[in-house]
Amino acid sequence: xxxxxxxxxxxTIRDVAREAGVSVTTASYxxxxxxxxxxxxxxxxxxxxxxxxxxPSIAARLLKGAKGNLIAVLAEGLAGPWYGEILxxxxxxxxxxxxxxxxxxxxxxxxxLCGSLASAGLLRGVVILNPKESLAPFISRLARSVPTALFxxxxxxxxxxxxxxxxxxxxxxxxxxxxxxxxxxxxxxDGDVEAAWDARxxxxxxxxxxxxxxxPRDARRRAVGGFKTEVAERSVAExxxxxxxxxxxxxxxxxxxxxxxxxxxxxxLAVPADVAVAxxxxxxxxxxxxxxxxxxxx
Length: 298
What we know:
This protein is of the alpha/beta class. It contains eleven helices and ten strands. Strand 3, helix 7 and strand 4 form a beta-alpha-beta unit. The N and C termini lie far apart (56 Å).
């Protein structure tokens, strides 16, 4: 029988100093990037640390009063493709500036943790994706203690850097594309209109576009999509089961558009010959589908 041995003890700063041939004090200065050692010595210490698998613990940094290099990214959920692609885009840019990324779910406890880490000097900034209006007081308090950037904040009244998607302009561009191709019978799949301001903006732009062109109300139906694949799939399957298929389904995001695609195919209809489907977000996965999903990227 194979026996498993205990892992070797974690390397210490003394081990790093011995490996690099310097004093413990010099190794500590090099690892904390204080500027008190030469570039050559720092490189030798860093190389020794990497070889030994050593990294300063958060506790050690806190006791030494050293500044942290963490940037926190908070999101409602981390499993969906949208958040994954945002994180993939953020991480290289943040790393290139010498910071490390820590991802958290967006909750009161995690916001409070960010505040504590910032007070301890370990957290240097926060990025919040689609911040919830209900968390505005806590986010506002956090933004006063550490640089904070809000991605798609909607009507959230918080003094922080804000990056806003042009939901209305994007939806009008998508609708222009569909209208020019002769589509005159639409089904709209809502996002989470109760909680997400961008879902409301996208629907309002969709409806205003068709109103301006005089399309009758019975040719622009509306159903629940919930920004989720499984919710959209159930909604579309139910509608198709009644026997009247729309000519085109426009979803508030790509995940619900994929649900619509699944439901249309399972009903025996062809995409786009019988029912066309369009989404919003430009996720990478949209190009892997067959046929590729019509979607708006930004």
